[in-house]
TrEMBL record, chain A:
The EC number(s) this enzyme carries: 4.2.1.20
Active-site residues per Swiss-Prot or TrEMBL entry: E49, D60
Organism: Sphingomonas arvum
A Pfam match: Trp_syntA
Keyword Lyase on entry: yes
Superkingdom of the organism of origin: Bacteria
This protein's encoding gene: trpA
Pathway(s) this gene product operates in, as recorded in its UniProt entry: Amino-acid biosynthesis; L-tryptophan biosynthesis; L-tryptophan from chorismate: step 5/5
Protein name (record): Tryptophan synthase alpha chain
TrEMBL record, chain B:
Names of required cofactors: pyridoxal 5'-phosphate
Organism: Sphingomonas arvum
Classification via Gene3D superfamilies: 3.40.50.1100
Protein name (record): Tryptophan synthase beta chain
PANTHER family in UniProt: TRYPTOPHAN SYNTHASE (PTHR48077:SF3), TRYPTOPHAN SYNTHASE-RELATED (PTHR48077)
Modified residues (N6-(pyridoxal phosphate)lysine): K85
EC primary class: lyase
Pathways involved: Amino-acid biosynthesis; L-tryptophan biosynthesis; L-tryptophan from chorismate: step 5/5
Recorded catalytic activity of this chain's protein: (1S,2R)-1-C-(indol-3-yl)glycerol 3-phosphate + L-serine = D-glyceraldehyde 3-phosphate + L-tryptophan + H2O
Amino acid sequence: MSRYAQMFQRLHQRAEGAFGGFLMLGDPDVATSVTLLDAVVEGGADMVEVGIPFSDPVADGPVIQAAADRALRAGVRVDDCFGLIRQFRAKHPAVPVGILTYANLLAARGRDKFMADAAGAGADSILVADVPSIEAAPYAAAAQAAGLELVMIAAPNTPEPVIRRIAELSGGYTYCVARAGVTGTSAALALDHDRLFAMLAEAGAPPPVLGFGISYPDQVAEALASGTAGVIAGSALVKLGADARALVQLVSAMKRATALPNGERER
Amino acid sequence: MKHDGRFGRYGGCFVPEILVPALEQLEAAFLEAEADPAFAAELEELLTTYAGRPTPLTRCRNLAAGTPARIYLKREDLLHGGAHKTNQVLAQGLLAKRMGKRRLIAETGAGQHGVATALAGALFGLETQIYMGADDVARQQLNVFRMELMGAKVIPVTAGGRTLKDSVNEALRDWTASFADTHYLLGTAAGPHPFPTMVRQFQRVIGKEARAQVLAVEGRLPDAVVACVGGGSNAIGMFSDFVPDEGVRLIGVEAAGKGLNGHEHGATILRGSHGILHGTETLVLQDSDGQVSDSWSISAGLDYPAVGPEHAWLKESGRAEYVGVEDDDALAAFQALARSEGIIPAFESAHALAHAMKLAQEATEESVIVVNLSGRGDKDMAQAVKLLQPEAA
């Protein structure tokens, strides 16, 4: 059973939603990045999502763009990122790790080699932000060959045929975006996801995890009440910079908010 | 999608899933418009009575004197707006109206595509926002003023390297949140499907006219057709109708900047490698990890680290050839055309011209060369003064 499947099973037994914390690898430098990744686990994150910095991150808002810029300016290379994942895997053998990055980094390294190196470092999944379902088939095949799960994105405007492709090609979890636009914190979430979650379940897609704009513990509870299996916070964590203490505190506050109300457990 | 937008192994549609419905809507609207005589008629009327088509094909009287070559210029510089860009902003503006959009966004480098989009916004009554690198906003005050005069709002981009590629990133980010009421009027034959195909179709009027004009005056097809390539819209527009004419050499001229052996150039086809940028699989200037490099050219329009996917394919298939022209040679051609013909070309077009002059010099027998003079040089005057009369600037 994959680490994601084990995690969802464990959380289901505890009547909790999953909390995923996102950080940009190598932000602000490789050494600090090690400490911050540990802090996310210490705070209680169930899964960790890591960005491999790219020069032109079109799906990201200002906070994560700035994180990628800092990492690249610090001279962080793709090999350093795989090194960070390898270290993380050695320390935290059960925590699922997903890579979030962009297609050009795969093209440059060779798609198959990138996937194999990611899996070899200990990653569980990869989400390529600018590879939509219509381009995903060769990525899914390469991921499968390497032993990685390909995570795909679904949004409230995603039509049903695409949901079926996501069910067919993807694994781990389904990254559901909480609103249109790029990553980043926002005051209000548009939680108009009932139809999307129903279609995903109907198609047999991997469990939905909601991201893009989760900033406060209250939003975590609100999102889980809307029927998602988990949430991912990125920009809110990245904004804290190199303050590992603050990161532990925010992650633990968000993780506490993943306890499902009584009766939710059997849903 | 009806089509996969592939040119050999290049092209495709590499955007976040959330944008795919917007591109599907655009493809559907484009295919429907292409099949609709009413769309063609309205575009034709605008191109004729507003933009000034057809543009002439001018034989250079002096530029190639003493060589056995005859150089013809396809005069896109005479279009309203000053460059070939007007052809496609009118077409995309009409499409935006058909789709019921109320707002246009666009990226611009030094401002040419921004100005073109602003004119379409004014003409069609669409709110218009232009993303432009913060440094360019400061450097290109006149173009910023032109856009504002036509009612557009210019948004300085401070992200990344503040260059054209960062402006494309910002426009794409805007569009992922705004596509319900906004059309992204991409400026070149690059980006995700259907843009490369659509922009080519809207620009191929250049080559269609040029082919008929050269046949009429010479009674035969040219030996070579030459156009500059940044993103590649003027070149693809010029080349397309000549592609089946196997005897006609198609030559794309890239910005070799300060030299192809350094890093300060925009020669994506000559020096780039396989990659995926701004929605399309193509050739990209990048490092070995895939981090995209900053390009360089004296001409803002050629200063882009990727290229339209159809050019990558035309190169790979061998149908077109690509060469580089350095800043200094482009500047010399810029002066030569002004001096010998009384025509001041855009710095971009001067790259194509420089290569055509080289072909003429090297010609050993009678030959006919058609150059796409894609734009006029008015926009480059301030920069030209600085370069040519540094003591006066």
